[in-house]
UniProtKB/TrEMBL annotation:
Residues 33-93 form the Wall-associated receptor kinase galacturonan-binding domain. This is non-specific serine/threonine protein kinase. InterPro entries: WAK_assoc_C, WAK_GUB. Residues 1-28 form the signal peptide. It comes from Populus tomentosa (Chinese white poplar).
Length: 317
């Protein structure tokens, strides 16, 4: 009978350690900033979520809640980012309602938020199934369509044109090559106002200018102002990434942080961490030791340990 209370204590202690272990495991797997999202490599200034990458890019760019796609979100919708060129500071989105040679469909307006740091890149818009004649299409009085282009005749050889209610080999005066394209004062490609049903956007003709099934489709965007972010941060971030960290920023103040692991953020890089983050590791192991003696006093010891431990973790975030 005398052994019973100490047996209870052992069970409680065991429970504490198992819980702590599980908690630690879950936190370890759930890195605050990810280096990939689906098949995309995510590097600064792109980020997988809040606090990751550059604060200028969030909340416009983030990894989808399912974690399978990097998305650009604007007032007109969410668009998968299908490629990023870190050297030219450009990226390509593929709007789900965009037409291609394999599938043509009606599209809602496509737009960018004025406050976002992005603008149209050099892709070519083909406005499809417009009310003829497209030579009269204009934005604020200036004609929109490049009438001399063969691109319309080429894309109209795709059998999927029937998806837009057009006959096979439709007359080309219902198609408009709009390049360089500009968004209107609402930041949109206003298909409704232009009286067009859909659009295709071509990033590259891939050395097959007359074979639209070989073209690369997508809307190229670039960061406003050319270079992706400021020189000082770019340099700091580079060192952080080389040391195995992910570049991010501290929410509210937006100051640079290098995210090294789920518990370690630093203003330097992961090799030369600033000292303020070192005691956290030490603190955790000390607390585990001291919690032993606390736990002997009963469950209250455990819960106070647990709460102070959680507080300590969140104090750094
Ligand atoms: C580290 O920074 C990231 C990004 O700001 C944040 O999500 C995370 O909670 C921080 N972690 C710690 C332990 O402070």
């Amino acid at each position: 009978m005398e052994n019973l209370p100490s047996f209870n204590i052992i069970v409680i202690l065991l429970f504490c350690y198992v819980t702590q272990f599980i908690l630690w495991q879950t936190l370890a797997q759930d890195l605050p900033c990810r280096t990939t999202c689906g098949s995309m490599q995510v590097k600064y200034p792109f980020g997988s979520g809040h606090g990751c990458g550059s604060p200028r890019f969030h909340p416009y760019i983030a990894c989808s809640p399912e974690g399978d796609q990097l998305l650009l979100t604007t007032h007109t919708g969410s668009y998968p980012i299908t490629s990023i060129s870190y050297t030219t500071s450009t990226f390509i989105i593929t709007p789900p309602h965009m037409s291609t040679c394999t599938s043509m469909q009606q599209s809602p307006n496509l737009g960018l938020d004025w406050a976002s740091p992005f603008q149209l890149g050099s892709s070519t818009f083909l406005l499809l199934s417009c009310t003829p004649p497209t030579s009269s299409l204009n934005i604020k009085g200036s004609p929109v369509c490049d009438t001399s282009s063969y691109l319309c005749a080429s894309i109209y050889t795709c059998p999927s044109v029937i998806g837009l209610g057009l006959p096979l080999f439709p007359p080309t005066n219902t198609c408009c090559v709009y390049s360089p394209a500009n968004f209107n004062s609402k930041g949109e490609l206003d298909l409704q106002k232009l009286n067009c049903m859909g659009f295709a956007s071509v990033v590259s003709l891939q050395e097959h200018p007359t074979d639209p099934s070989q073209w690369q489709y997508g809307v190229e965007l670039k960061s406003r102002g050319g270079a992706l972010d400021d020189y000082y941060i770019d340099n700091k971030c580079n060192t952080c990434e080389i040391s195995g960290g992910v570049c991010g920023y501290a929410p509210l103040v937006n100051s640079f942080v290098c995210v090294c692991s789920d518990t370690i953020n630093t203003t330097m890089d992961c090799n030369t961490r600033s000292l303020q983050n070192q005691p956290e590791l030490a603190w955790n192991s000390v607390s585990l030791l001291s919690s032993k003696s606390e736990a002997v006093d009963g469950v209250s010891g455990w819960s106070s340990f647990r709460w102070s431990s959680l507080r300590k973790r969140t104090a750094y975030s």
